[in-house]
Design goal:
Two copies of one chain form a homodimer.
Chain A: H1 16-25, H2 32-43, E1 48-49, H3 50-60, H4 66-78, E2 82-85, E3 93-96, E4 103-107, E5 113-116, H5 119-131, E6 135-146, H6 148-156
Parallel strand pairs in A: 4-6
Antiparallel strand pairs in A: 1-3, 2-3, 4-5
Helix pairs in contact in A: 1-2, 2-3, 3-4
The structure holds a DNA duplex (30 and 30 nucleotides).
Chain lengths: 159, 159
DNA sequence: TTGAAAATGATAATTATTATCAACAAACCC
DNA sequence: GGGTTTGTTGATAATAATTATCATTTTCAA
């Protein structure tokens, strides 16, 4: 299954037609389950887990199995509709892929994720690659730290 | 178990005394197993997994259980002797914590890996973290691209 | 040396994810 | 539309990494 690059804007209204367009674009069959899952992702929270998608979707479609959710999230990831964020041992989280490029910093204690973008780093990366005779195509940059809340907790309860 | 910050240089000779110093510094009892595990990490490869440490250590100490290895790696991580790197769904990898940081760029075609370090990016990362109220503890930065050889091949054999 | 506290190792439990497969459903053709 | 092919579903098992449990053993300070 080759990763197809798809350019879809999240700004378009979430109509059934729009959902079908996405599903067809990645070359798979349109099913009720996939429609529901996509809708949930488009309407729901920012960084969803397979579990949270599953639970929310289950209200509308109680017969759905979580293997279906996992599978479709993977498919969407393979086709760059979603991107997958994996932090520590926590379950994978997903976000809409083609928003402006950004990276993540996440808290190693509570798992909170914040986003940022930094053009200067992007430029340096390209430069580094060029110096080593690589043509840069992609990168992963994940920062880890303690968020303000967890820094505070650590001071209050030293144990 | 409070994270104790320990400053130990890997440059010191790996004597039994040195190993004991580390183990005592984190406030746990000195056991043969812990000595052997630490020695393995100090002498062994760069980015080890719990599994690889376990297997190597088992040659010298066949009676060791892998729970012991996991536990001790976690303890060392909690006390910042090691740092833990978790990428994708892969098993956690450990590296000596207070050495100079470096990153990797790898070729998506042939798998070649080159290392680099860049102070400017490191500084920017710390700055970014600070702006978002995180205390940066670690990061992963992996660049992906085509190495010079594979760029050339791609031109010769387009596909 | 000895006894309390901690560590070990075997194994079970847990967690996230992927694989399997029979029943079912979508899409293409006529 | 009806039939057929092929893809999808959902229940469940399998896998993989990690953590918990607990009886036994070991460390180490008094």
């Amino acid at each position: 299954m080759q990763p197809t690059r798809i350019h879809l804007s999240k700004e378009e209204p979430v109509t059934p037609q729009f959902l079908k367009k996405i599903i067809r674009a990645i070359g798979v069959k349109v099913t009720d389950q996939r429609m529901t899952i996509l809708q949930e992702i488009l309407n729901g929270a920012e960084h969803v887990t397979a579990q949270s998608v599953f639970e929310n979707v289950k209200h509308k479609t109680p017969d759905i199995g979580f293997a279906t959710v996992y599978r479709f999230l993977r498919t969407l990831t393979d086709h760059n509709v979603l991107s997958e964020i994996r932090v520590q041992g926590l379950p994978a989280r997903y976000e809409w892929a083609n928003k402006k490029h950004h990276d993540h910093i996440s808290c190693t204690s509570c798992g909170k994720i914040s986003e940022f973008e930094n053009d200067e780093i992007e430029k340096l990366q390209i430069q580094i690659a060029r110096n080593l005779n690589y043509k840069l195509t992609n990168h992963i940059m994940e920062l880890y730290g303690l968020c303000s809340d967890c820094q505070r907790k650590q001071n209050i309860l030293p144990n």
